[in-house]
Design brief:
This protein is an all-alpha fold and about 625 residues long. It is built from 32 helices and no strands.
Length: about 625
């Protein structure tokens, strides 16, 4: 052992180590001077009198140009013992200056960087972690060096081959090294000053998150594992818990995203551990769930790849928690990120509205959102309405939803009608009555919408309304049904088979409500043109109203409806000819004339014939409706 160094004044030693620009780097291989044992006052550095051998050994190692392999682990162990024992003998005065003077942190970093990346045969990495942990307790010993040390630690360990490719001793050393790394990270945070703990935490998690994007699965797993340990410690460790607040929102959120991605079927990360991590997130939602939109987007992106039951249930629990805490933000985000008819978004809706409490809050915010919605009516609400229990809960939305039928967006209206088709079947007639009365006036214009889906859905809803009418409401509803008869009649000629079928079923329901046996028979036997005659016979007082209703169909995009309108107008206008109401006949002929140049020849021909008949004077009285005179028009 080297001799005890001569006594030097405390001031002289401080002056020497206090001017780093004048120091020669202990890592400089060109350094020629041999560093002698530390010349220091034992009274000024209390630990020296107890740890002289270790101090001299450390100085000898860092001062040597060539570092022998056999001396690396003793060097690291001496650092651990020196730091540990110094705490036993009182405050480690001067130890921080000693660490800085001889570059202990820099030497540890070099040792880690020199370790081969393709194998693990020695305990250098393990002891390096232990040494850094001990140095973290020495004030200012690592100040400004933490980031470079962390990078060296993570790279040296994470980039090693997979454990299954290691020998038994290598696996043992790897496990001990990882354990030491977890302890080291906690020790670094605990040993950091209040002014620097925020930066340190951010550095730790940012570096770990970077490694989670590695192409190598073993690297990802190792980084996620450290995030898991560190995140758990931030809340479980009684002292570390106070440091958690220094982690920025962006880092917290990125960590949650890593946990969600760890749930994917293709992830090599253990699903049980990933579930436990999300449970931890949900245990402290105020801390972790700060950026809900980003978390929602991550769930939407990965949900299709999360299919194991525990993992999917964990994600569902997270969605429920977010919906319960921030229903407005969750609702707005899902409406914004989900494209129309998106299956993943539908699954998310199903998860969120599966229980009553979050559903109630979502509905409250959805009612507000519906007043200003400008993109779509959520498919998840439609899905939820398919359940009888859920339909009754959702019925509070109905008054606001009706208003969306005035929306200019066809897809919005389609969703609304689908919603009503779903929910109305589960409600009692008395429950549905207030909304149905609002809905009635919105449906009739949709019979003639450009979208065949809207035509079909609106007619189907009309049929359900007619079939579900209560006794005390029949008088009012009959007037409504009378106004729907002619549009339904024209839709029998719709080019869409689904629309024509829906119109036929709705007319049948109307005939049964009105107790018109002839109309019911004609509909059932599909005698289409006799249905038009029957309508005129049953509603003579409405002939003028029918004429007015028919005129817009002369401009319909479908030639089959234009043809049907011409035929019906010809029938309905005959009484005007009998009464010699020339002015009204002239108006009708004027409305028909544009069709003389129609793109379809059969429409042109029929319009010309009808104009000729309506314009010619009557030669002799005919039967009351002279329907036989029009037989040649029948197809």
């Amino acid at each position: 052992m080297a001799e005890r160094p001569p006594i030097r004044s405390r001031l002289a030693w401080q002056e020497e180590v206090g001017a780093p620009q004048e120091l020669r780097s202990p890592l400089d291989p060109k350094q020629e001077d041999v560093v002698q044992p530390l010349q220091i006052d034992a009274g000024w550095l209390p630990v020296y009198q107890f740890e002289r051998r270790r101090v001299d050994s450390i100085v000898s190692f860092v001062s040597s140009a060539e570092k022998e392999e056999s001396q690396k682990i003793p060097f690291l162990q001496n650092i651990c013992d020196l730091c540990y024992n110094s705490k036993r003998h009182g405050p480690p005065q001067g130890l921080d200056l000693f660490c800085q003077r001889y570059g202990l942190a820099e030497n540890i970093k070099v040792l880690l960087e020199e370790e081969p990346r393709n194998k693990l045969r020695t305990a250098v990495r393990w002891n390096a972690m232990l040494a850094i942990a001990e140095l973290s307790a020495v004030e200012r010993a690592l100040e400004g060096k933490e980031a470079s040390l962390l990078q060296a630690c993570f790279s040296s360990v994470f980039l090693l081959p997979p454990e299954e490719k290691m020998q038994d001793m290598g696996r043992y050393l790897f496990l001990k090294t990882m354990e030491a790394m977890d302890n080291m990270l906690q020790a670094l945070v605990l040993g950091s000053s209040a002014s620097r703990v925020s930066e340190l935490l951010q550095n730790i998690f940012q570096m770990l998150l970077t490694f989670t994007t590695s192409e190598r699965e073993c690297v990802q797993e190792r980084a996620v594992g450290r995030i898991e340990k560190m995140s758990t410690a931030l809340f479980r460790h009684p002292t570390l818990a106070s440091c958690a607040r220094y982690l920025r929102t962006s880092e917290r959120t990125d960590i949650v995203l890593v946990f969600i991605e760890a749930m994917r079927d293709t992830s090599i990360f253990d699903k049980k551990r990933a579930t436990d991590l999300l449970d931890m997130v949900m245990e402290f939602p105020d801390f972790w769930l700060a950026d809900l939109p980003k978390i929602m987007r991550c769930i939407h992106k990965n949900l299709d790849s999360i299919n194991t039951a525990p993992a999917r249930q964990s994600v569902a629990s997270l969605l429920l928690l977010m919906a319960d805490r921030r229903p407005g933000k969750v609702l707005t985000t899902l409406l914004r990120i989900a494209p129309p008819r998106d299956r993943t978004a539908l699954d998310m809706w199903d998860m969120m509205i599966s229980t009553a409490r979050p559903l109630k809050k979502i509905l409250k915010n959805l009612r507000k959102r519906l007043l200003v919605i400008d993109s779509m009516f959520p498919e998840g609400v439609i899905s939820g309405s398919e359940s009888p229990d859920m339909a009754r809960k959702i019925q509070s939305l109905l008054p606001q939803v009706v208003g969306l039928l005035d929306h200019s967006n066809t897809d919005v209206k389609r969703r609304v009608l689908t919603f009503f088709c779903s929910v109305m079947g589960h409600l009692k007639r008395e429950e549905a009555r207030p909304t149905v009365e609002q809905l009635e006036e919105k449906l009739l214009p949709l019979f003639d919408d450009e979208s065949s889906q809207l035509r079909e859905l609106s007619i189907c809803l009309f049929r359900e309304r007619v079939q579900s009418v209560m006794v005390h409401d029949k008088k009012r509803i009959k007037s409504y049904v009378h106004r729907a008869l002619l549009p339904l009649f024209f839709r029998l000629s719709d080019q869409s088979n689904n629309v024509a079928k829906a119109a036929r079923e709705a007319l049948l329901g109307a005939a049964e409500l009105l107790k018109w046996k002839q109309l019911r028979h004609l509909v059932r036997t599909q005698q289409t043109w006799r249905i038009g005659e029957s309508l005129l016979e049953q509603n003579r007082s409405r002939a003028q109203e029918f004429l007015s209703q028919s005129l817009p169909y002369l401009r319909d995009a479908q030639a089959s409806l234009r043809e049907a309108a011409v035929r019906f107008i010809g029938l309905a206008a005959r009484p005007l000819r009998d009464r010699r109401e020339e002015e009204k006949l002239a108006e009708i002929c004027s409305a028909l004339r544009p069709l003389e140049t129609d793109s379809k020849s059969f429409v042109r021909s029929l319009a010309a014939q009808t104009i000729v008949i309506l314009s010619s004077p009557r030669e002799q009285p005919r039967s009351r409706w002279a329907l036989q005179a029009l037989c040649c028009w029948r197809r």
